[in-house]
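Why should sequence recovery work at all? Because a backbone constrains its sequence more than one might expect. Tight turns favour small or flexible residues, buried strands favour hydrophobic ones, and helices have their own preferences. The token representation captures these environments compactly. In the example below, the structure is given first.
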């Protein structure tokens, strides 16, 4: 009889130890609980009861002991109560794990700098050669071609080499970029039963790890915006939480512009992760808020800053994780005013979109 024959599913052995498997789940739980180790361990224990993650020889208590012994967690104070807290080693591991998960294509790429189509001082050779000029790096010399020129110009019997014989490899110019990443922490990031802040945190950690390890000459600053906007450190990302805030995009853009004014890199950009429209601006010491529709006053201030960024040659890339028609209309207007870019991404595709934009966002050489 024709048809399909179903057999019992047997999971493939991926070679990971029980500790490594638990660590992978535990790190995800840490992000969901904003760094609350005790709550993450409680969730892990519940998952173990349902899915039998541990073995008779290795339980949750053994895992916690290994976390302490490996310097991943330690005793500390959180919200005024004593308990376990993540260490700096765990924070670094979280960033690296996010990078491995989201930017998995990096494993096959070379460690280096941004490459542009313009030639100049760089690491990656082109197929072209040029005569040596004062200031050219000696490690760029083409030895074989220089020797050949010396033989042609001076002969074998009277062999000598002069500066006129030297040629060097052309190389691609390396652009240096200063990036400000804006993360929306308004209440809508956890509304309707959808956790949007955790993927945003994970992407931010991966991007920061990418830039600090692969592109050390680039800079990244991270700011969050709700009713107001403020700058946070990379180490603070796992503990980021959504608040009872409106969305003051204007405050975020103003802070981002102030940060980029101080950066010496000629190439500057803003990346913004949000799920909604601007609903708040500050006038003096008071807030003007309107969550219903697109308020003309708020919209005008926001679009005005988009134009200002364009004049300052600061492109804005917006990653919108919602697709309501009126939100799409706002993002289209905002993008047009800035002459920037916009991506309408699902939560699962956010990291890929952001990574590809950062890698492909080649800037022309500025003098």
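From this structural description, the recovered sequence reads:
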């Amino acid at each position: 009889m024709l048809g399909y024959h179903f057999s019992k599913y047997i999971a493939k052995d991926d070679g990971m130890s029980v500790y490594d498997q638990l660590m992978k789940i535990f790190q995800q739980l840490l992000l969901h609980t904003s760094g609350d180790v005790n709550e993450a361990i409680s969730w892990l224990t519940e998952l173990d009861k349902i899915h039998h993650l541990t073995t008779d020889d290795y339980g949750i208590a053994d895992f916690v002991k290994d976390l302490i012994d490996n310097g991943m967690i330690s005793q500390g104070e959180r919200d005024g109560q004593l308990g376990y807290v993540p260490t700096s080693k765990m924070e670094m591991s979280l960033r690296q794990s996010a990078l491995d998960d989201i930017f998995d294509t990096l494993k096959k790429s070379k460690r280096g700098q941004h490459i542009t189509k313009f030639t100049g001082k760089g690491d990656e050779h082109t197929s072209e050669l040029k005569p040596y000029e004062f200031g050219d790096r000696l490690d760029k010399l083409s030895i074989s071609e220089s020797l050949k020129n010396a033989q042609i110009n001076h002969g074998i019997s009277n062999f000598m080499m002069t500066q006129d014989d030297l040629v060097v490899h052309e190389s691609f110019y390396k652009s240096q970029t200063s990036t400000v990443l804006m993360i929306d922490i308004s209440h809508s990031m956890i509304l309707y039963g959808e956790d949007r802040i955790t993927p945003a945190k994970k992407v931010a950690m991966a991007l920061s790890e990418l830039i600090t390890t692969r592109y050390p000459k680039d800079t990244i600053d991270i700011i969050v915006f709700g009713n107001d906007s403020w700058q946070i450190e990379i180490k603070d990302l796992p503990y980021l939480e959504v608040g009872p805030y409106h969305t003051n995009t204007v405050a975020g853009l103003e802070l981002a512009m102030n940060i980029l004014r101080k950066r010496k890199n000629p190439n500057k950009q803003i990346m913004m992760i949000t799920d909604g429209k601007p609903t708040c601006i500050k006038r003096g010491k008071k807030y003007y808020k309107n969550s219903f529709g697109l308020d003309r006053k708020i919209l005008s201030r926001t679009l005005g800053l988009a134009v200002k960024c364009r004049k300052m040659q600061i492109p804005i890339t917006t990653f919108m994780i919602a697709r309501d028609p009126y939100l799409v209309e706002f993002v289209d207007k905002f993008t047009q005013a800035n002459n920037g870019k916009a991506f309408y991404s699902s939560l699962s595709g956010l990291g890929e979109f952001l990574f590809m934009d950062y890698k492909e966002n080649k800037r022309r050489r500025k003098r």
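A few observations help interpret the result. The chain has three domains: 18-86, 115-174, 176-360.
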